[in-house]
Amino acid sequence: MRLRPSALFGPLVALLLAACSAGGDITRPIPTRLVPATQPPHRLVVMLPGRGDDLQSLGERGIAQTIHRQWPDADVILTGLTMPFYREGRATERLHDEVIAPASARRYDQIWLAGISLGGLGALMYDRAYPGEIDGMLLISPYLGDKAIYREIQAAGGLDRWQPGPVQAFTQETYQRELWRYIQRWSDDPRRTDSVWVAYGDRERFRDRISLLASQLPPGHAFELPGHHNWTLWQPAAKTLLEHARSEAARRDTAERKQRTGN
């Protein structure tokens, strides 16, 4: 079942970093820019910005070029899915209808979501609402809620012992609990986390919650790097995730070929 979150991101403004939010005109489609692959394209990476970034700043930061250095066969769609779209309450639905679904029609072998901070939360929300629509996620310093829900999970003895209670609609009051319920369920489907990668800084304020998410991933899929919650960390974090995801895919391809040929 596809779940459509209602308006819930007013409180998020106070919970995220002190930097100003990027603006955006929600009466128009989500702004996007296609940066073509430098080789014949076989996959797509859709990039979701953090709270202080927008389509223009993603372009100026050169994140598409960072992706191409590691994945030259990837088309990159930079997006301006900024805070106003989340506040509207239809960010996930609009991301699907305006970006992911049209891209799927191009028949890429794989579609990945990459998100920084607020964009990491957006990627997780999308996968929760539209399971099976994307092939992987690259999460860089994802925002995962406030301290209260983290302390509740820790007091229960960890995510595997935590009891989130009855499933509720995804609303302003419930979204953090429902987000962690979704992450908790990764344990029931190990294949889902085979293509989820996360990187974060050892000096950023959200590292405890990101570390909790990282504990749900396979070994070698989470990286704590030196740095704070900013682009000085995010560029090398993106490079690290892309490198390891590429290497892991190559290992799997080799193993599958050997299995098919019996060598």
What does this structure look like?
This protein is of the alpha/beta class and 263 residues long. It has helices spanning 12-15, 55-61, 63-70, 83-88, 91-104, 118-129, 147-155, 175-184, 190-193, 207-214, 231-261, and strands at residues 32-35, 43-48, 74-79, 110-116, 136-140, 196-201, 222-225. It contains 11 helices and 7 strands. Helix 3 packs parallel to helix 11 and helix 5 crosses helix 6. The radius of gyration is 18 Å and the shape is globular. Strands 1-3-2-4-5-6-7 form a 7-stranded mixed beta sheet, sandwiched between helices. Helix 6 links the parallel strand 4 and strand 5. Helices cover 43% and strands 14% of the residues.
* CA radius of gyration: 18 Å
In whole angstroms, how far apart are the ends?
42 Å
| Strands side by side in the biggest sheet | 1-3-2-4-5-6-7
Number of DSSP-assigned strands: 7
- The mean pLDDT is 89
**H/E order of the elements?**
HEEHHEHHEHEHHHEHEH
Q: Which regions contain 5 or more consecutive residues with pLDDT less than 50?
A: 1-19
In DSSP terms (H or I, runs of 4 or more residues), the helix count works out at 11
